[in-house]
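**User:** I keep going back and forth on a fold encoding question. It is easy to fool oneself when nobody else works the same problem. Could you pick a protein and write out its sequence and tokenised fold? Could you put it straight underneath, so I can go through it closely?

**Assistant:**
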Amino acid sequence: MNKSQIQEWKTKHGEIFELEVDGKKAWLKKPDRKLIAMAQSLGGESQVSIGEVLLDACWLGGDEEIKTNDDLFLSILPTLNQLIEIKQAVLKKI
């Protein structure tokens, strides 16, 4: 992927991530809460289904084989969770 395309995506979507597995690459945008909710709603309890929805919704470009090859797709499932940044919150009773 060329640098101008990546910069265009950054301007439009904010944070962009490069995902690589077995020499194949894909570029993903960071999901917002609507995309995360959609993935959970459509995927139900299945982590595989949630991963499929999340990957499709965040996909900007790359090797389509990551989506279609089961071995590659299953390899990236744990990595997809890193798209969702969880910050530490503190709740205090006052």
Remarks:
- Helices lie at 3-13, 33-43, 47-58, 65-68, 70-80.
